[in-house]
Amino acid sequence: MSDPTVDQGNKEDSGLRIAGGWLREIAIVVIGALIASTLLRLFILQMFVIPSGSMENTLQVRDRVAVQKLVPFQRGDIIVFRDTQGWLAPAKVEDDPVKKALIFVGLAPDESSNHLIKRVIGLAGDHITCCDARGRISVNGTALNESAYLYTDAGTGKQVDPSVPAFDLVVPAGTVFVMGDHRNDSQDSRCHLADDTDGGPAGSKAFIPTGNIVGTAVAVVYPFSRFQGLSRPLTFENLPAGQTPPAAPVLNGPEVVC
User: Fold this and answer.
1) How far is the C-alpha of 238 from the C-alpha of 91, rounded, in Å?
2) How many angstroms from the chain centroid is the CA of residue 258?
């Protein structure tokens, strides 16, 4: 006859082994998911929150956008980049460890204030001027038709001008020239051509080093009512190639005041 106490102990041991096995399986799945999410964020896709109205109406304040890091950017793409040029006030340090961890693994969007989002207007070597007789920006002698994305006032139906300040420049090597779609509410490359460069070449604070670019915004993913892809406007297709990029910015126009 078996001992009931021994049988009960065997059952408890068996139950503990099963529970332990399930916990190990769950831990492996969770850790694997976190690793996959972190790798996704670091090398493929990252989420950002739009902090201002500089890209209206294409992007609205508090939109969540997906930014891809695999395909190289081109003229006309909307890019997210780190601010190392002093365009922004010092970034607020995120002090919530849980939120920092969620951002790191890609489970929460990055809302840090040291990133900006703008549209690429010119690449290194491009000659960009504003404005022609019809008020348009030109890239390497070809005027852009920006009516598809420039900000339109909902009340008046009036679209903003491509740029009120005039400028004439050549983009230096290793950088891009960017502008917001809401040109009257965007402190973009135009507005930093006269910034103090601490002894560097004149105008150099206006151009974004390509090494600062995180990736290209490809979709608005939240709120769900605004879910949409973000494509490159047709006006940027087949633009002429630029010249050999100069080492420093070439500034031909008057000093820009935004």
Assistant:
1) 38
2) 22
